[in-house]
Amino acid sequence: MLFDREKNLLIDLTLPIYPFHQDVVGFPKVCSWGHTAGARLNSVQAGIEPDDMPEGKSQAWEEATIATHLGTHLDAPWHFYPTTAGKPSKRIEDVPLEWCIGDGVILDLTHRGPGELITKEDIVRAAKDIDYKIKPYDIVLIRTDCDKMWGTNFDYFEKHPGMGRESTIYLLDQGVKTIGIDALGFDRPFKTMGADFRKTGNKDVLWPAHNVGKEREYCHLERLANLWKVPVPFGFTVMVAPVIVEGASAGWVRAFAIVDKDKIK
């Protein structure tokens, strides 16, 4: 059994989506239909009157308009580029489920500040600090603690570090297929990259980690949460299976960690 209530601890790694919350990738709209409205909707379909429902109530509903890149989500290779190494990129429904469950490892990069680049050396050092050797199909989670800013101010969108080309390639070279981060984006903030490009004219500073997906096949998670709540840096299972929206570049995820209580010191 993967999960035992007596032996395992579950930790939610998912960021909530707030209806009508200002965001850089869309404006989530959620219309709630309460139980009285549900009676009206269901009665039409059933060919009866709303008052025929017990207590005049029926099931509640919500109607949502939400970008696939809002909330905790998994980016499919199609998000990065239409092809990967010259072949058609996987859309979200093509992502193997084997990439969505695996041994989790948390690398602490909380020393990296707003707009800073997470380098290959940072990744190597973080793994060494916990005496862990990254192996194929590990799900590597980059901890920045930027999720703590969510819902408090606009700093969440503009003050996070981000992965670089070399740090991403290093993890892929270890056989990793899925990488996650507890920040708005996998790369550095939009404005930071834009400012660097205007200063240097070098296009390589624009989404370097995302653009690795043109050459190498992988997925990454954005907007994870609560990595700081996981009591061990490795030795736990993580599940990040996405909702399938056919043809989409991403899918929402209810991510969570399954931790063996016996491994908690």
Radius of gyration: 21 Å
| CATH T-level topology of the largest domain | Glucose Oxidase, domain 1
Q: Distance between the terminal alpha carbons, to the nearest Å?
A: 23 Å
Overall geometry: globular
Helix content: 10-25%
- Secondary-structure element pattern, one letter each: EEHEEHEEEEHEHEHEHHEEEE
CATH architecture of the largest domain: 3-Layer(bba) Sandwich
| CATH homologous superfamily grouping of the largest domain | Putative cyclase
Please identify the top-level CATH class of the largest domain: Alpha Beta
Strand content: 15-25%
Largest sheet: 9 strands, mixed
Number of helical segments?
7
Give start-end ranges of low-pLDDT stretches.
none
Strand order of the largest sheet: 1-15-13-7-9-11-12-4-14
User: Structural class, judged by helices and strands?
Assistant: alpha/beta
